[in-house]
């Protein structure tokens, strides 16, 4: 797969390094508006994440205003990273900002050599927000992401409400047509440990990989 290129725009993407930066407060505001409570961490949790070396918080600025952000976690002992969140301010959507932010994120120095995992709400069953789920998945597919076939991803809770059914997509330049089952398992273990604070032998991981073939297709 060739590198993603998009028309240039007056968008500046940079890393946020401190909770004392005004950009962090703007990020929190977009985050709270864009994500359902069942998928949302508290501002205190985000502040703690920002201080961890495995996390990269990026903000997109347009005319000195934060219009979007992404949060990536580098997974230890792995060749992957997790795109934990990506969102654009409500009144700035449908302008190509999300696409450009994704491009800048996958090209970010700490991320560019890794597989990037993306958790998305599943579109496999009919829900009240089914069209939104289809749109989100089309967004990532249009940027070169592919779904891990047959993986029924179980996202650990991050709030009091249970998370929705999820699928997992993957991006990498020169993405292969399939991934070894052992590598998929390693990715899941690293996500559970590094992102959700769960043990690597969590039984939900066994459930997820039990029926996967040895070579898992990316579709």
State the gist of this model.
With 219 residues, the chain is α+β, with helices and mostly antiparallel strands. It has helices at residues 22-34, 43-50, 97-106, 130-142, 181-195, 203-209; strands at residues 12-16, 55-62, 65-74, 80-88, 115-121, 146-147, 166-171, 178-180, 215-217.
Structural description of this entry:
- It is a single chain.
- This protein has one domain: Aminopeptidase (3-Layer(aba) Sandwich).
- 30% of the residues lie in helices and 24% in strands.
- It contains 6 helices and 9 strands; from the N terminus they run βααβββαβαβββααβ.
- The longest helix is centred in the C-terminal third of the chain and has 15 residues.
- The two termini are 14 Å apart.
From the structure above, extract its key features:
alpha+beta, 30% helix, 219 residues, Aminopeptidase, 6 helices, 7-stranded mixed sheet
Strand and helix layout:
Elements lengths: L11 E5 L5 H13 L8 H8 L4 E8 L2 E10 L5 E9 L8 H10 L8 E7 L8 H13 L3 E2 L18 E6 L6 E3 H15 L7 H7 L5 E3 L2
Parallel strand pairs: 4-5
Antiparallel strand pairs: 1-2, 2-3, 3-4, 5-7, 6-7, 8-9
